[in-house]
Specification:
The chain contains six helices and seven strands, in the order H-H-H-E-E-E-H-E-E-H-E-H-E. A hairpin with a 3-residue loop joins strand 4 and strand 5.
């Protein structure tokens, strides 16, 4: 298999998967090193394909014309992360990312792709295992999420529930 054929096959695998695929999984499948996969992903991205790298692996950002998106600004302590994320997913939303506007470093963020309580648990376990602090520590609890839902009514419902919980900051 040539490197070009491998990249085409990697792209096919990522496009057909609903879950992220780790670099290690791809490396095993193609009997190459993970570093080769990292280079392949970089070349695929250079061709304009929206491959996202997350803590859970790689995935292709699919066209979600059927879903509506909104960027919201919230503020809460680290103790409220679970509650905030559960409000969003329990009302049919997906948390695509988290971002902060740091006064020195500018905008910092990470792709989350949280769509279920299971994903929330995985995210929180990863934070705990790595000993990393959530981004909200950098900005005294203020942060943003891009959220997605089937329709504007669902997004409105999510925002109303976050507001009722005291998390939503109106801009």
């Amino acid at each position: 298999m040539t490197s070009e054929e491998r990249r085409r096959e990697i792209l096919r695998i990522l496009e057909s998967s609903d879950e992220p695929i780790t670099g290690a999984e791809l490396a095993r499948k193609f009997c190459v090193t993970r570093q080769i996969i990292v280079k392949d992903i970089a070349l695929i991205k250079a061709e304009g394909v929206q491959v996202l790298s997350t803590a859970k692996g790689y995935f292709v950002q699919k066209k979600m014309e059927l879903f509506k998106r909104r960027t919201i600004t919230v503020c809460h302590s680290a103790d409220a992360i679970t509650d905030e994320l559960q409000i969003i997913v329990d009302l049919g939303g997906r948390v695509l990312d988290t971002q902060v506007n740091h006064p020195f470093y500018g905008r910092l963020g990470e792709v989350l792709n949280i769509k279920s309580r299971k994903d929330i648990g995985l995210f929180l376990n990863k934070l705990h295992e790595t000993g990393c602090e959530p981004l909200l520590y950098l900005t005294k609890g203020v942060h943003m999420h891009t959220i997605e839902a089937e329709d504007e009514k669902s997004l409105d419902e999510i925002c109303h529930a976050l507001d009722a919980a005291g998390y939503l900051l109106l801009e």
